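Hi support team,

I'm filing this because I wasn't sure whether my run with NAP finished correctly. The job status page said complete, but I'd like someone to confirm that the output block is well-formed before I use it downstream. Pasting the exact inputs I used:
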Amino acid sequence: MSTKRPWFYGRKFIITGGTTGIGFEITKRFLEAGAKALIISHSKEELEDAKDKLHNFDDKLETFQCDVSKYEDVEKFAKYVEAQKDKDFLYGGLIECVGITNFGPFFESQLKDLIYIIRVNIEGTVTVTHQILPKVLEKNGKEMTYLTFISSVAALAEFPYFGLYSATKVAMEHFFNSLSKELPKTVKLLMIRPGAVKTRFYERAKNAPGHDMRILAEKTKSYFTTPDKVAKTFVNAIIKKKTGIIYPSFSTKLQASLLTNRLIGPFLKKSYFKQIMTYNK
Ligand SMILES: NC(=O)c1ccc[n+]([C@@H]2O[C@H](COP(=O)([O-])OP(=O)(O)OC[C@H]3O[C@@H](n4cnc5c(N)ncnc54)[C@H](OP(=O)(O)O)[C@@H]3O)[C@@H](O)[C@H]2O)c1
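And here is everything the job wrote out:
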């Protein structure tokens, strides 16, 4: 990272899902670059753990326990943010990283697990955006503010066994793109579409009975990148004030363009689908 202070030096980023994986690495990079961070996640233990790991930045890091799938929790968080209204700082933006997946055949999956994916990925993201972003923008006035979302290459294709996850990413990309047309020009929208990333995402998957996404992850580990690489590209893009959709690396961008290519896409998908559906053989 360059020694020049980034534009967000001293500003505060609110990061949902900042305790582990991509969100944690993004938090770390922002702190290292001189920003402050307010991270939320639903597990108290994970928040404590993240705080321990980031103890060098104690004075710049705040945590708040909030399950984004629970409206009451988001309301409490909104009050916490509101209470900081008169404090002397600006926000860098709202960085939305929370996301979970299902895994396994749709009709073998428990309906409550499937609905929970929608509750966290869609309802949670919409609720946080609706209740928190206006408070961030009110405090920032005409200052530049980022609104960001961690999408996925899964938004570009239909994936058997975790189709609902893909659907939530497509829905949220459309949501954020539409929203950005309503918001003032000072709000910069950035979305990143990673491919497979080595995080706890796979162990947290809501599996259908007899299925385990960790086995698929283990079998396809050569395709995986690390969360710090994703975070590096993401934070660098914010330093450079980029907007729109980005990819963590050239190879992910290539994979995305091949997946959506009219001629190559169907063959590539067929090979991916075969891998997914025979993962435990
Ligand atoms: N890993 C991949 O291959 C991959 C690929 C493309 C996109 N993505 C996306 O990247 C984002 C981050 O995922 P990750 O891979 O870094 O996974 P991760 O390590 O499992 O991180 C997920 C984060 O979300 C938080 N979270 C989950 N449910 C929550 C809830 N109901 N309320 C509040 N916080 C909640 C977790 O907090 P707790 O500690 O409290 O559970 C954790 O901080 C997700 O949106 C995911 O869809 C991941």
